[in-house]
Amino acid sequence: MAKLDSIMSTSVIRLSPHDSIQTLVSRLSKGSDSCAIIEDNGLLIGIVTTTDIVRIFCSKKMKLSDPVFSIMSSPVTIIDKQASLEQANKIMDTKTFGNYPIVETERVVGIVTHNNVVQAINDNMRFHRHLQNAVLGLFLIYALGIICYYILL
């Protein structure tokens, strides 16, 4: 079974708690990332997603000059890099988040989304279904060969 390190994104937007929301928005708008992690001295202390930004902008409770720590979510639900897809899915089923930092020795090494995990599990199931069909096909060919052998005797 695949591990998270095979599907996680290692491109992670990292900000300090005192960076401005303007910096956050600017960095998020330059790529396809949907979140940024907030680190203090290299340790994860929070996360901000595009959904958080939209919700806070709609409530008009922030200024672009405010620091990101004022809008970050903390504590953050993390998943170990060595976790299996099933373990990650169990964690995700108990939470309502879309993005999960992947950690190794207390350092963020990537980000995985709930959609990434579900897609990987689907791909894995599809592979096993094809493998089962191939084995069944080989068994049927073998069985037909034995039947033909006894008929021709």
Describe the structure.
- This protein has 153 residues and is an alpha/beta fold.
- It is 44% helix and 20% strand.
- The protein has four helices and six strands, in the order E-H-E-E-H-E-H-E-E-H.
- The strands form two sheets. Strands 1-2-3 form a three-stranded mixed beta sheet. It has a three-stranded mixed beta sheet with strand order 4-5-6.
- It is elongated and about 90 Å long.
- The relative contact order is 0.18.
- The model has no long low-confidence stretch (mean pLDDT 86).
What class do helices, strands and sheet pairing give? alpha/beta
Strand content: 15-25%
Strand order of the largest sheet: 1-2-3
**DSSP strand tally:** 6
Shape: elongated
Q: How many whole angstroms does the radius of gyration measure?
A: 23 Å
Span of the ends, CA to CA: 46 Å
Question: Helical element count?
Answer: 4
Into which percent range does the helicity of residues fall? 40-55%
For the largest beta-sheet, the strand count, sense and barrel status come to:
3 strands, mixed
Average pLDDT, rounded to a whole number, is 86
Low-confidence runs of at least 5 consecutive residues: none
Q: What are the secondary-structure elements, in order, as H or E? A: EHEEHEHEEH
